[in-house]
Amino acid sequence: MAKTQINRTLGCKNVSLFLFENAAINQFPVYRVHWLRAKARYDRWNEELLILQQEMKWTIIWFKHQMEEWEGRLKKSVEENKPGHIAYAVKQVAMWKAFMAKGEHEFKVVLRS
Hints:
Elements: E1 3-10, E2 13-20, H1 35-80, H2 83-112
Antiparallel strand pairs: 1-2
Helix pairs in contact: 1-2
């Protein structure tokens, strides 16, 4: 049985591979599984999903905060009887409420996972 040597560089190490000609070991295909690279990719995507979910939650919380701020301004404008301020505050409350509802609707698929 003849032996053939192949020198390859894998990562930072030089590795010598010995292939045996006509040996039973060469009859099966060799699958190289880069499981470290695959695990690193998996971990990165899991971290990215976690960050994305948190950013989506923070966005909805920000919209709710803005809506509540404008509700407070609306209440103050009503007490001071300022019709222009009341109209603008009503518009702002509706806008932030719509943003919050749209965010909750659009993000619900990602936030469930």
